[in-house]
Amino acid sequence: MTRPDRKPERIGPEEKLGDIAGWEMLLALCKCEHFAEVDIRKLKRKFGAETVLRTLEPKLKCAKCGGSGAAFFAVKLPR
Fold it and tell me: Which ranges of 1-79 does DSSP label H, i.e. alpha helix?
């Protein structure tokens, strides 16, 4: 996957899954600089639209370095 062309913006502390617009991309970014697009619809089905995204960040695990707890969510507009 190529690096995003526009810098993603970290989500706000109270932003919920339902607050992410359909045209936005939800990314999980790790301290090792690896990132992956996250399927918002899947998260909404599993956790509900009212779930605060920051509460899910500790569950993230990097597929590249295996780190957990150091990743965070960010949102960006698609190209």
Answer: 40-47
